[in-house]
Design a protein that fits this description.
By secondary structure, this protein is mainly alpha-helical. The chain has one domain. The chain contains 15 helices and six strands. The strands form three sheets. It has a two-stranded antiparallel ribbon with strand order 1-2. The termini are far apart.
Amino acid sequence: MFEQLDATLLARFQFAFTVSFHIIFPAFSIGLASYLAVLEGLWLWTKDEVYFALFNFWKTIFALAFGMGVVSGIVMSYQFGTNWSVFSDKAGPVIGPLMGYEVMTAFFLEAGFLGVMLFGLNRVGPKLHFFATLMVAVGTLISATWILAANSWMQTPAGFSVNEAGQFVPTDWWAVIFNPSFPYRLVHMVLAAYLTTALVVGAVGAYHLLRGDAPKRAKKMFSMAMWMAAIVAPIQIFAGDMHGLNTLEHQPVKVMAMEGHYQSHPDGAPLILFGIPNSAAQRVDYAIEIPKLSSLILKHDLNAPLAGLDTVPKELQPPVAVVFWSFRIMVAIGFAMLGLGLWSLWCRWRGTLGENRWLHRAAVLMGPAGFVAVLAGWVTTEVGRQPYTVYGHLLTAQSVAPIGAPAVATSLIAFIVVYFFVFGAGTFYILRLMGRLPRDPIPDLTEGPIRSSGITPAAAHASRSHHHGA
């Protein structure tokens, strides 16, 4: 049944499917880990029980999201050996160590302190527990750093040579890690994770405000999330613009696809807002465009010339329609985030942040928008790199394993069934938890932490009993 299908296309779709499921969990857990550190720090500083209740609430959700992120990430790594073994052989000397460093630094750090963060408050005391929470947050950021370094090297490879076996061999690790697109992509992704988390937290807070549940805690949650949206959204738009300029310098064909520029424009290129890309005819049908604005955005000059896809052989052009629309979805959501943040500032200035039900409804609707924007951004950057896996050096068709289409199709179907069942159930449970605002009491830490020597629970209890008896 699957004999007529293209094994390379199926392998690409399988990796896209698994990475799309995976990325939504790190995008959430990176921001949530930092949010937990902020909540615990504010609780220790102010002694306000609202912060501790919110910390406990989001701590459980973080644990579930982190676990699903780990499981979905492990599955992806196996595909390097099954569907992409040629890529692994050729790029392994560069990609392998970067992935290994992520495990040895970030994952070990996160795993080492996660148990303390989840279960250790009454055992290690508040200060050491706060340190553990900080280490988990730092670990998520280090993890993003290594993964983005590996992916950015595939986008803008540097610091390598090719040996006689056709393998990419690192010659300068600093150049490999800090390749030309790495700083821009790291900042863009971390800010995206913070915005994604802010929208989820804001949606949950708004949901409980609309229901009238625990208004003090819900309002605090909502207020913190809206501050994040209002501050980070404009920074993200600026960072995205800088990333776009970097992409224009190092991956101009990707920008041509994003902009829908099939034709070169020697005297200023228009900004195509909407249209239907037609790769067969090499044009955008029904285009709605603003003259010369693309040149102004990309070159800061209305009349700056911009090359088009007519300068690129058709076999080296990415799938324009996918890149064109995914880019517009990402940008549209980014400006929607900015709008929500500005609206919240207006309501905050008027003193109606906790009462404006239309703002709350908008925040609930925007809850999943961060995940959609992250997925659209990854589709833009990964599909826009095609037909290469290592940009300009290794074609995707040369990277796939010698495996038949039926084998890839069968495993793809299995992935789809298992993923929707397992991660669907996990996501459903997380949503159930979000629907119930906690009412946790503040722990009694006056006796100090439980230690392995010295003060033990039994000894502490006996001491208290003796004191009360006296």
